[in-house]
Amino acid sequence: FVALYSTVWGFVLNEKKLQEIDSLWKEFETPEKIIQMHTNLFHHFLFSCKASTALVEGKISKNLKKILKKIVAKDAHEQLAVADAKLGGVIKDKLNLSCIHSPMVTELMRGIRTQMEGLISGLPAKEMAAMCLGLAHSLSRYKLKFSPDKVDTMIVQAISLLDDLDKELNNYIMRCREWYGWHFPELGKIITDNLTYCKCVQKIGDRKNFSCSDLSEIIPEEIEEEVKAAAEISMGTEVSEEDISNIQHLCDQVIEISDYRAQLYDYLKNRMMAIAPNLTVMVGELVGARLIAHAGSLLNLAKHPASTVQILGAEKALFRALKTKHDTPKFGLIYHASLVGQTTAKNKGKISRMLAAKTALTIRYDALGESTSAEMGAENRLKSRSKTKIRRISGTGKAMARADKYQHKR
């Protein structure tokens, strides 16, 4: 294609037709018009994926060098039209060939591409489309630099799904407690754990069956006796078997979603340890995953300064404080980290600032470093834990730390 473009560019320069960009498309209405420009156009039109990726990066491949050297040897005084200004600069430096990049070049290349199928003989349209698609996929893979161990998109999707599952579980459990509470209201006060409550309802069904059932696998013996005693004197209403069946189906859904949530959490934990081990050690897998999801990717998060990491997730409070001229928030998503939770309320702001600074370092190490160890995160976490107990400086200490006034001596 380079030979094709350069030859056509030389012809158009001689004809001086680039002065009228709007009418340039008329020269590319049919393949015959382009073929009339030069009879030897298609000697070098096959480039491998490596050559294409080199062009994308603004580098000169071996095939391109050979073609350009031939062009330099034949027509050293002609200009070469390039679509990428960076590539034109490299060609000019290495081969001393003058290049041009302008809107006229864009129109010229667009015109050649419109007649590409007719210009390349012996290549059906389907094969041409398949070749273009294959080259596009290869370029996309190269640009993404796909690695299954370094895909933070999986973390973003997993933490979003985990939050959605928590919301759905809360809705289902509230509905189950309220629904079965009409039949056996005392059970909700005795069994506070939601999953245990649903397992009991799913196994027993009607409250009359509690007295002759064994619940030792689900709840302790003392709670089991209390449940059986409450079932005999319950004030709940009588319900039909169809109602109990629907409630049990709802309990099945709650148990299945809970099991899937536990499986998803293990997957997220393993994925976080593979992609961002230091960040995981520093703030935990859930907080780390939420930070990555909020920023969009691990690389985007690595570009944020520590002050932004500290208040990430509290943007609404930040802009409201700036608008009303009040105090800005001291923490966002990082508030849920264990180190901030262990600190007293008075020192949470200071610890969150220090933790955000250490976390920003670990994020950049995970995103841009080649090591997969979590030693840096563990070391920074130990330093942060040692500083969670902030000592108060006495008055004498302040006086001793104060520096003398500087006086300039002439």
Automatic annotation (TrEMBL):
List the subcellular locations.
Answer: Nucleus, Nucleolus
| Keyword entries, A-Z | Nucleus, Ribosome biogenesis
* The keyword Nucleus is assigned to this record: yes
Q: InterPro entries of this UniProt entry?
A: Nop56/Nop58 (IPR045056), Nop_C (IPR042239), Nop_dom (IPR002687), Nop_dom_sf (IPR036070), NOSIC (IPR012976)
**GO molecular-function annotation terms?**
snoRNA binding
Q: Could you name the domain of life of the organism this protein comes from?
A: Eukaryota
Every copy of the Nop domain together lies at: 275-395
Tell whether DNA-binding is among the UniProt keywords. no
Sequence similarity:
Belongs to the NOP5/NOP56 family.
Q: What is this protein called?
A: Nucleolar protein 58
Gene encoding this polypeptide?
A: NOP58
